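Tutorial sheet, problem 5. The two components below are modelled jointly, 1148 residues in total.
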Amino acid sequence: MSEAGSLVDELRALEREAQDAIDGARDPAALEQVRVAFLGRREGRVSRILRQLGGLSPEARPAVGAEANRVKQVLRGALEERERRFARERADTGTPARDLTLPGRDRWRGARHPVTLVVDEICDIFARLGFTRARGPEAETEWYNFVALNTPLDHPAADEQDTLYLKGGGLLRSHTSPVQIRILEQYRPPVRILAPGPAYRRDTWDATHAPAFFQIEGLAVDEGITFVDFKATLSEFARRFWGPGTRVRFRPGYFPFTEPSAEVDVKRRVVGADGSVEETAWLEVMGAGMVDPAVLENVGIDPERYSGWAFGMGPARIAMLKYGISDIRMLYENDIRFLSQFA
Amino acid sequence: MNVSRRWLRAVAPGLDLGAGEIAARLAMRGAPVEGITDLAAEIAGVVIGRVERVRRHPNADRLSVCEVDGGNGTVQVVCGAPNVRAGTCYPFVPVGAVLPGDLRIKRVRIRGQESRGMLCSARELGLGTDHRGILELAGQFDPGSPFAPTVGLDDHRLNVEVSPNRGDLLSHVGVARELVGEGGIRLAQLPGAVEHELTVRTGSPAVDGAGARVRIDDPRQCWRYMAAVVRGVRVGPSPEWLASRLRAAGAHPINNVVDATNYVLLELGQPLHAFDLARVAGPEIVVRGARQGETVRTLDGERRELDEGMLLICDPERALAIAGVMGGSESEIGEGTTDVLLECALFNPKGVRAVRRALGMSTDASYRFERGVDPAGLELAIRRTVSIIVATAGGESAPTLLDACPRPWRAPVVTLRPERVGQLLGVRFEAADIVKLLEPLGYGCRPAAGAIEVTVPGHRSYDTLREIDLVEEVARVHGYDRFPDSLGAFRPGAVPDDPLLRLHDRLRTILVGRGFLEAHTTAFAPAEEGEVEVLNPVSAEESHLRRTVLFGLLQAVEHNFARGAADIRIFDMGAVFGADGSGGLPRETNRLAVAMTGRRRPRHWSAGDRPWDEWELRGLAEELVAAVLPGECLVEPGTFDSTFFEEGCEFLLRAADGSVVGGAGKVRADRVDAPVWAGPVWGLELELGDGVRGRPDPVIRPLPAFPAVERDLALLIPESLPARQVLEFLERGGGRDLAGVSVFDLFRGGDVPDGSRSVGFRLRFQSERRTLTDKAVDRAVRRLIQRLKEEFGVEPRAGAADSGR
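Model answer (structure tokens):
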């Protein structure tokens, strides 16, 4: 008998033996033992024959290979069929194989900080109005924090911000406005930037004050920028951020580095559960104004040719209004029960 | 600035607005009202009561039994005041009404006599401190009519927020001017006050007259000093009209002379000071800088030590007052004062600011001088003060006003181009329109070629010195709300989006996707956690700037541990500071920190808990480093910060050039105050550099056309030999067709000798040109085993090496 013939016979015998074993298996565990005994990768009897293929003559190899594969297919089918029968039997006895009403494997849900959510939303809206994001150092000099911003240190306006000073020189910026100077020193108009980041003041922690807080500075400088552009851009932003129907009010204000200066208030429309529409009270949301010509002169930009506007916003306060947060300290406690509510 | 609505109307007779309307208008002029107090609300239930009859209380000497007509017939009231008289009107609280302090008046019996109501003192009504008797009303009123409006107490106090550039709004006249314009201001004739015939005698730097002398030694700090003398005054309480007006504006009446100066301060914004003339040696006023070591006792009783050069008001012998800040107690007006010297001066705002800051104090006077007092308003102020003092305290004014004036004021003139107004505001304004907007506020306008020459009034001469200041005035008076807000065309900005902020975005996306919560920590840290010191910190906990972000995260972990949370995953990004900066500033870099503890995934019914471990940390570190730095970067065991991480359980994060960019590890137990049930805390800190770096686009390799062959190799590796060395050796030495090596198993014990472990490597062979034969692959594996033996003395684990297909 040829080596091929004997192996083919052996395979057929195995097939019959395996069929009997499959039919005789009483439960899924027994069935699994049968599978391992015949088809197991290392010790399975069919697998072992397959492994001998390499030693066969090239003429014998195809026939044996084909037969081995056929036997494998048949046995697999039989195993699956038997498996299905077990499953049907289980279903018949009223024990479902899987109770899919059980909870799935959950994952931890991450979340951005609420202040980040607000900052990102603001930056996204302004990005569509041609703005990019910019950044500056948090430890600053008096020049960038005050003097270049047209705020002489011997003027009461410097008192509005109780500044933290550093040993060895410098201070912690009391607002993000120094970024205006840093950027205008580095780039020529057109400049349209937002500068989100922390600012620092000598405040003690309470429900509405924090010695470190986020601010977003906005700055647009180009030829032909007017008070009308200023109002229009910020109104457009406000309607996109707080929703259509939001009313925007510009009141005269005072900042040493803008003139005319304005306080910007918004009044939102809130639709109640019953469909009724109500307006909120006026909410003060930013300080803003046209860039003071003295600021442009300080960075070597001709104020007769270029003009601009700027604003400062507190995303923490906006986040508090938006998400109903009553105490600013919650934003810095990092309680995961709080943070995970933004997932 | 506290403003009384009635007082506003007194200086602007045409102003007939309610408090709410005034607040709305001021807001649109840049002076928002923070609060409105209805001064009559607390005494709304009080009526006029006329006492008809008074008899002694039968059972008490000090009490009287009165018949009071409170408008609703006559009721019996028991009263303890000594000054109750029949036929006189008093404030009366009937039964059921409420007094300040939520005191509800009930029907009571006092020593057997029924009492149905209460006659009140000024103090009981919250109108003052006088409690010697009930408040006797001069004149006759209708019994039962409401008390507050009848006696003129129905007033509102408006708390006006005044920005630092608008010192002119720190007075009733200043606020009224915004509401009615300059033309609508008319100072009311005050009860008993008459204009005195006073002639002004001017001199510089010294002047004398009225039996006194004034000399200015420091004209740089004292620009003008006016003085008046009133002799023969009787110091006592102010009349009710004056006292109640001061109270309405939130000031406390003191005595008739001081109250007169405060009245004018609040009405016109000019601080004045009254000296007891008998206490002024000479009498001569000398305005000079302080000498070294000089002190003065101020009105608040403090002895103030002065720095040399601080401006003082002195007599020839000693210091009397700190100029523009506070008077001295030794020349204070008292009950014995008969002759008064009145000061009405103009000081350099910067000088006053420097002195009051150095002394750590602020007063109504210094507050106004710092923000600029109307240089054209002194004479009116001192004349008005003199007439009020004579009306309320008697005496006689000396006929001469002294006026030492080394720096006569000249109104600034600013050129305003209507074209520039249009260029900046985006709306065209004709010259005539601009004049109409500016003139009511006191600006003098004279048309010139293509421009307007604007003369600035004294009260705006501190903040309106440039053309842009007038542009703002035009916009403000025109009304910000009247400018259109339609969006026009714009050029996009030339500044590239900040790479570090873009890196922040990317890292947030990775970490949030992996289930981490973004925390916000501050840059503050206690001394042991920072190198850079804050000079004026609020607390010791915030006395330095942090050198790591991880420190704040670990505090947050503690916070959450303390609230029972065992599973914590947080991160934050921000600046850290080092002392070795340049240009006088600290070195500032940006870092990411991550902290985690507890379970890797939420508990599920199908499986047990798996906590975070060093392998999860290492995997996360590798992912984060790769996100931050392009190219080959490395995570390896090593010490990054031994104050944070446990020895032997710490990784160093390295950039491609070998520089250390961060560390990660198991946080030392003494670093976190952890409850007993808490698992280990893992932390990571990573420098972010300048942000997203230029990253080459990937160039795609063709997908393999030929099958891969795998071989597993279990090697006995001595504990002293780092597995990484073997792994790298395999990767390097496996030949061209070795596509990858991974570790699939680590085993100790059993047949593995002590001092070694069995590490299972899976080698994956794949050729780009052909199907690999078993023979070729086996040959390659054998060669590797041989070379491993030579290189490291490492042997395959007997019988365990498998060649699965």
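Marking note: The radius of gyration of chain B is 42 Å. Full credit if you identified this.
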